[in-house]
Design a protein that fits this description.
The protein is an all-alpha fold. It has one domain (6-184). The chain is 69% helix and 0% strand. The chain has 9 helices and no strands. The radius of gyration is 18 Å and the shape is globular.
Length: 195
């Protein structure tokens, strides 16, 4: 990995780890008082847990120098973060719609771009959402050429995607999950104010 300093990568991995710890600690605070019948709260908790697992997968792929392969997981993390921010603003009113989507999801409906952008606009995250969508081309064309002589046929016109960029984005999306939880349970998620 000559294009990224190991220390930079470790710092970004630690940033992801801090966001995960803030989510865990906050859930320990609010968990005992949660109403198990609250569908909105259940979706927020399940979504936050899913976000942590997605972030772990991104880190694992980046550690193996596969930033392009991590982009599909990053796209799902972005979808989760935007949906949780959207849900946190009005949990019980929006929960039935989100629950229905999750119950009837299929591969072809998983990443509905218009739904994603609509929710991102409502939560002030449109620029971030558009950035996440722009990574699609890197996912399709990316990946290091590892076969002997494969470098002769690799896409030379595409800018190389760096592990550092993917990890930075993962940390940012996970922080947005943290902020969504803090919207729902204000003051219970210290660290939500960090960039």
């Amino acid at each position: 990995m000559d294009y990224i300093k190991w220390g930079d990568m470790q710092e970004l991995i630690q940033r992801v780890g801090r966001a995960k710890a803030f989510i865990d600690n906050g859930m320990c605070r609010v968990g005992p008082g949660m109403d198990e019948a609250g569908v909105g709260d259940a979706l927020l908790v399940r979504g936050a847990g899913r976000a942590i697992v997605l972030a772990d997968a991104i880190v694992a792929l980046c550690r193996q120098d596969h930033p392009e392969e991590a982009l599909a997981v990053l796209r799902q993390l972005a979808e989760t973060a935007v949906s949780l921010r959207w849900l946190a603003a009005m949990p019980e009113a929006r929960a039935p719609s989100l629950e229905s989507e999750l119950q009837t999801v299929r591969w072809e409906t998983l990443w509905d771009e218009e739904r994603f952008l609509s929710r991102a606009r409502e939560t002030g995250l449109e620029a971030e959402a558009r950035e996440a969508l722009a990574y699609c081309i890197h996912f399709v064309r990316g990946g290091r050429v590892t076969l002997p002589w494969g470098h002769r046929f690799g896409p030379k016109q595409d800018a190389e995607l760096h592990v550092e960029e993917v990890l930075r984005r993962a940390g940012s999306w996970l922080n947005l999950v943290l902020k969504a939880l803090d919207v729902r349970w204000p003051g219970s998620f210290p660290g939500a104010d960090q960039p």
